[in-house]
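Thread: Newbie trying to understand structure tokens

Hi all, I'm a second-year student working on a class project, and my supervisor (Dr. K.) asked me to get a predicted structure for one chain before our next meeting. I've only ever worked with sequences, so writing a 3D structure as a token string is new to me. If someone could post the tokens and maybe explain what I'm looking at, I'd be very grateful. Here's the chain:
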Amino acid sequence: MATVLITGCDRGLGQEFALQYASKGNHVIATCLDPDQLAGRQTFGSNVDLVRLDVTDEAAVVRLADTLEGTTIDVLVNNAGIPGPHPVLDETDMVLWRKMLEVNLIAPFVVSRAFAGHVASSEQKVIAFISSRMGSISLNNTGRSYAYRSSKAGLNMIMKSLAIDLGPRQICVIGLHPGKVVGADVAGLSAKESVERMRGVIEECGPHQTGAFYNYNGQILPW
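---
Reply by user tm_fold:
Sure, no problem. This is what the structure looks like when written as tokens:
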């Protein structure tokens, strides 16, 4: 089966990605800030390796890549990120903005660069970025959320450039909007459904889809 590396498995979509890929018999490398404090860690199967990793620590990312030298990674899911808040202009927090750029923008680039060789040596050869339609300039009709929007718009540009630069190695690089995911007690898109649909997009993609920005349902989103 495939080997899948997922960042940000501490909660939410990251945990759901790990659980779903593992349930299909894949070998999952699930990174999180503190595996010892991971809620529900007992639900992960024996085919899930929980790895401590702060994606903003470049040296730690490189060490992990070196440790996994010789391991082929079919799918790399850059999921780790700060999801909000989304304040108005006068309430924008500059400290949080800088942190958001480190986590949402720079870290996925560092991870992808470190593991590009592992992905290139695999069968499936996919690098997926969990982006957001809030990073789409064309779809911005409501303003505010300067930190989050800029981090995801920048992530989309990184994804597009990587798709070009890694194209000769037959790596498919895509961006994914997970949809508006709500809790179990609220009607709407669940994390389980979101990840199921995004996994479907990942499974269908190949070199011809590289550089595309997808909604969770497979619809192409505008930049």
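A couple of things are worth pointing out once you decode it. The helical segments are 12-23, 58-67, 94-120, 146-165, 191-204. The longest helix spans residues 94-120. Feel free to ask follow-ups in this thread.
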